[in-house]
From TrEMBL:
<keyword id="KW-0479">Metal-binding</keyword>
<keyword id="KW-0175">Coiled coil</keyword>
<dbReference type="InterPro" id="IPR024185">
    <property type="entry name" value="FTHF_cligase-like_sf"/>
</dbReference>
<feature type="coiled-coil region">
    <location>
        <begin position="4"/>
        <end position="31"/>
    </location>
</feature>
<protein>
    <recommendedName>
        <fullName>5-formyltetrahydrofolate cyclo-ligase</fullName>
        <ecNumber>6.3.3.2</ecNumber>
    </recommendedName>
</protein>
<keyword id="KW-0547">Nucleotide-binding</keyword>
<dbReference type="Pfam" id="PF01812">
    <property type="entry name" value="5-FTHF_cyc-lig"/>
</dbReference>
<keyword id="KW-0460">Magnesium</keyword>
<dbReference type="InterPro" id="IPR037171">
    <property type="entry name" value="NagB/RpiA_transferase-like"/>
</dbReference>
<dbReference type="InterPro" id="IPR002698">
    <property type="entry name" value="FTHF_cligase"/>
</dbReference>
<keyword id="KW-0067">ATP-binding</keyword>
<dbReference type="GO" id="GO:0030272">
    <property type="term" value="F:5-formyltetrahydrofolate cyclo-ligase activity"/>
</dbReference>
<keyword id="KW-0436">Ligase</keyword>
<comment type="similarity">
    <text>Belongs to the 5-formyltetrahydrofolate cyclo-ligase family.</text>
</comment>
Length: 192
């Protein structure tokens, strides 16, 4: 078993152990952090995700962005470019279908598609992170491929969302990993 695989198992189990009350408190704390951070609060086009497997639930944040008049987009597994994500507009009445991983996503409608370069922020889920901004995802590389190039100004700013229990002192890094410039937990706002 690789070290990264072991980390995924350990941290996924830790976040699944969080109670419903802890999950809800964390979700609202993240929303409050974003609302108090001008460059995030003023974003007009944001990509979020729907929580799965104990991930930090962004629903309060999604609702808050809607109340501010922002457009919210969700990741959808790319239909023509395997291993990549595309982003479709998400509204309260959006029809969702389960993708091949069982995660709800908007039904493909080309009229709702937005090129990632037009997003202001991509909020990313993750499994683990360290104090240097490194992240470990679920292992498919979808977000690493999507975020590649953002340092050169060819994409929106990525911001990780996580529970405090997902922090490790250091995580192993591969050459394709894309570190985050910013990450929010209920207890802290990280910037690198």
């Amino acid at each position: 078993m690789t070290e990264r695989h072991h980390i995924r198992q350990q941290i996924r189990e830790a976040r699944r152990r969080l109670s419903r009350t802890e999950q809800q408190a964390a979700a609202h704390a993240i929303k409050d952090r974003v609302a108090a951070t001008p460059h995030l609060a003023q974003a007009g086009k944001v990509a979020l995700y729907l929580a799965n497997d104990g991930e930090l639930d962004p629903h309060p944040l999604i609702n808050w962005y809607w109340s501010q008049g922002a457009q919210v987009y969700l990741p959808v597994l790319h239909h023509f470019s395997p291993g990549h994500l595309m982003f479709l507009r998400y509204d309260p009445d959006a029809q969702l279908i389960a993708n091949r991983f069982g995660i709800p996503e908007p039904r493909l409608d080309i009229r709702l598609l937005l090129p990632k370069q037009q997003l202001d922020v991509i909020y990313t889920p993750l499994v683990a992170f360290d104090a240097a901004g490194n992240r470990i995802g679920m292992g498919g590389g979808f977000y690493d491929r999507t975020l590649a190039g953002w340092h050169q100004g060819t994409g929106p700013r990525p911001v990780g969302l996580a529970h405090d229990c997902q922090q490790l002192s250091a995580i192993p890094v591969d050459h394709w990993d894309v570190p985050l410039p910013e990450l929010l937990t209920p207890g802290r706002h990280w910037r690198w």
